[in-house]
Specification:
With about 450 residues, the chain is mainly alpha-helical. It has 16 helices and 2 strands. It has one domain. The N terminus is likely disordered.
Length: about 450
């Protein structure tokens, strides 16, 4: 076993100016999943009026099942909080790797601890995001109803993630390119979310932000595929047929990245360090497909198949053990390493099923509902955006110990600084910018905040 942080031979502290060195494949990040803010209110495209109407009665669909605000929202927020903290811990771990002629040396010589710290959580956010945003499309396709127009959906996504992201990119790029012209291509690629396709610059400026490129691509894919699925399901007379059609589509979207990885690795012999090949949407869309499949499953089951606390706990523990084994067994170029993300996506979906489709509250999920974890989940997007710049600034300024044995202390210091920064960022930037979503109604039309009063009747 070799932890993936080590096997990629990268860290975050040795980057040249203008870069944050490449993390290994699957370095855990916290993209703007679901709501883009981690606020627990993401419901997907929603159920307002729109052109894409599903089969059945054509009625307007109600609030999507499984939306965090009303169903297991605190638990989902807790998962985000745990994963956000795991991401910070992992990137500090990366920072304290050392490299020499003998190879990479982890901060702590404990393979079991290394597997836990290096357990990659990025797929959890892809699965969660896809689940929350696909629910309304699945309901419209299977049971009838409508979804918001693509323009309204994309506008709400944009106001959630773009303002904070653009601000961070501009600030970090400017500090790392103090003299003009600087690396303008890097800036343009980050502002257009295309850096995931650039092998040299994929991890520049904001290292973990490659995952946001995939989020944006998923948004575009969803507004293209979703309405097509709804229209296609109109021709299917039975609910069973509509469920099978939707599930088959999700399965196809999951299999395509698996086939791509197999072809790239075993057919073309592309090394895992060719980042765009294995980090691009063609390789990573499986996480979103798993979340879409979970949404279809939840809508298909309705109130059936809800699990009790015992089964929910068993699903969570089993999935967690499976994820740990994947991390422990992962070594560069082996099968576990190459297919980690499709396998992990399935396990995260199983874990979320035991969270969102339960018969009653699960006592074992008490930690997920705790105020501390849900608070971290609330600010998780801001923590994702700022934790790496905070880490590198502290390290370069000599405010972090340099000895590998001080890794635990360094982690506490980074968290002590990054969490308040994330809190300030959420309330000063992220939350205010999210209010821009009120500028348009559910149909995507500009909202009239000052409607004219009806004319008074003549006296």
């Amino acid at each position: 076993m070799t932890a993936t942080a080590a096997t990629a031979g990268t860290g975050t502290g040795t980057a040249p100016a203008g870069t944050a060195t490449a993390p290994p494949p699957g370095a855990g990040t916290v993209p703007a999943s679901g709501t883009g803010t981690g606020s627990g209110t993401g419901t997907g495209p929603g159920s307002g009026s729109g052109a894409a109407k599903g089969p059945g009665s054509g009625r307007r669909s109600g609030p999507p099942e499984g939306t965090p605000a009303r169903s297991r929202g605190r638990e989902i927020e807790g998962w985000r909080g745990l994963a956000a903290l795991s991401t910070v811990v992992f990137h500090v771990w990366q920072q304290y790797y050392r490299y020499d002629a003998q190879g990479a040396h982890a901060p702590l010589d404990n393979p079991y601890l290394a597997a836990l710290i290096s357990l990659e959580v990025i797929d959890l956010f892809f699965v969660t995001s896809a689940y929350l945003l696909t629910i309304s499309y699945a309901r419209a396709a299977i049971d009838g109803g409508s979804v918001r127009p693509a323009s309204a959906f994309l506008f709400r996504r944009a106001v959630r993630i773009v303002p904070l992201y653009f601000l961070a990119v501009l600030v970090v790029w400017a500090t790392r390119n103090p003299t003009l012209p600087g690396d303008w291509l890097d800036l343009v690629e980050h502002l257009t979310f295309t850096h995931v396709f650039d092998r040299d610059r994929i991890f520049y400026t904001l290292g973990p932000a490659w995952s946001l490129s995939l989020e944006v691509i998923f948004y575009l894919a969803l507004v293209a595929i979703g309405p097509l699925a709804i229209r296609g399901c109109r021709a299917l007379r039975t609910r069973r047929a509509r469920v099978i059609a939707c599930a088959s589509g999700c399965l196809a979207l999951f299999v395509i990245p698996v086939a791509w990885i197999a072809l790239a690795h075993y057919g073309w012999h592309v090394p895992h360090t060719d980042w765009p090949v294995y980090f691009g949407p063609q390789a990573r869309f499986g996480g979103f497909a798993a979340g879409m499949g979970l949404a279809v499953l939840k809508v298909a089951l309705g109130d059936r198949g809800r699990v009790g606390p015992g089964v929910a706990t068993a699903l969570t523990v089993s999935a967690a053990l499976g994820l740990y084994w994947l991390s422990y067994d992962s070594a560069p170029e082996n099968a576990t390493f190459m297919f980690y993300h499709p396998a992990a996506s399935v396990l995260w979906a199983v874990m979320l099923y035991g969270t969102v489709h339960v018969a009653r509250r699960v006592p074992a999920h008490g930690l997920l509902r705790s105020r501390a974890l849900t608070w971290v989940g609330l600010v998780s997007y801001s923590l994702f955006i700022w934790h790496e710049p905070v880490l590198l600034q502290l390290y370069d300024s000599g405010l972090l110990p340099t000895d590998q044995s001080a890794y635990p202390l360094a982690t506490l210091i980074v968290l002590a600084v990054a969490l308040p920064v994330a809190w300030a960022s959420y309330w000063l930037v992220e939350y205010p910018s999210s209010l821009l979503g009120r500028l348009k109604d559910n149909a995507g039309r500009p909202r009239d905040f000052y409607p004219e009063s009806p004319a008074e009747p003549p006296r």
